[in-house]
Amino acid sequence: MTAPDYAWQNGRLVRWDDCVVHARSQGAFWGANVFEGIRAYAGPETMHAFRVDDHLARLRRSMKSLHLEIGHSDAELKQACLDVVQANGFNTDTHICVVAYFDEGPNFDPLAYTTSTGVHITAIPMPRSAKHETGAAASIASWRRISDDSMPPRIKTGANYHNSRLAQHEAVRNGYDTTLLLNQRGTVAEAPGSCVVMVRDGELVTPPGTSGVLEGITVATVARLAEEKLGIPLRRREIDRTELYVADEIFLCGTLAELLPVTSVDRNPVGDGKRGPLTAALQSHYDDAVRARGDHPEWCTPIAPAREEVT
Ligand code: PMP
User: Fold this and answer.
1) Number of domains making up the chain
2) What is the C-alpha separation between 202 and 267, in angstroms, rounded?
3) Angle at 222 between CA 219 and CA 223, to 5 degrees
4) pLDDT band with cut points at 50, 70 and 90 for residue 105
5) Were both Cys, which of 58, 159, 207, 271 would link to 211 (CB 3.0–4.6 Å)?
6) d(CA 214, ligand 1 centre) in Å
7) pLDDT of residue 111
8) In ligand 1, which atom is closest to the CA atom of 58?
9) pLDDT value at residue 182
10) Active site residue 64
């Protein structure tokens, strides 16, 4: 990857190489941060960020849970996200990461760090997954998903992604594209970086927010589109592992993954082993929505074209 020119840190645009945190910051050392991944899409005329307000609202909820306070409003952060894309002159699909972190403090006293915090925002071009149509082969991870009584998955903190990393590495080493984690009760939770939706007998099902999952924005978008475009409600209920083996269709849902078909689970073909019709229909409606061609312009924030110079 060629490094972008600019990032944003603590209130201003900075050169990419100057966007740094200290090695002893709590964010870098312990993963004591919270973050959001947001996509910006190239629309017919301008770039625009998708559901940026919803992402920043979830960032606030994660910060509240960790008592992490920053000196920037949501309006400032939103503008900063747009500024980073604009300053770099990106005109293709882009992934923006907003990270709020605990910074340096005197020792291992969690309370000593509550006032020393920072925020950085970076963005890189990020094309759609190559498996968008052909689908991904998933395993069931031998690792269980973290749970609300120890490492709450509802809080989008970097530290949680150790669990995702263990599961994804295991899957890739064993020849799979991705993996699905079961929660501590043994029912389906989510993939390492996305939620999961199953189609059974024409019904769309996803695990509830109390199943050891992040409260996903993409799955909420899918719920709206499925209801409005197809008249199918998204049901939230626990999913057993063996339901995945007999499901008609399965797809992952995440900002980065978008809607990604899962065409096998533990080498068992899902349906006929190809992307299913409901998945394809929802992918198409999702694409319309993110490219500002849908019925929800309120989800899309335009980004002005690149300026000549950035101070
Ligand atoms: N679960 C996990 C663990 C994730 O990292 C993500 C990506 N943010 C999701 C689910 C999907 O969330 P969203 O649709 O809001 O991106």
Assistant:
1) 2
2) 23
3) 90
4) confident
5) 207
6) 6
7) 72
8) 15
9) 98
10) no
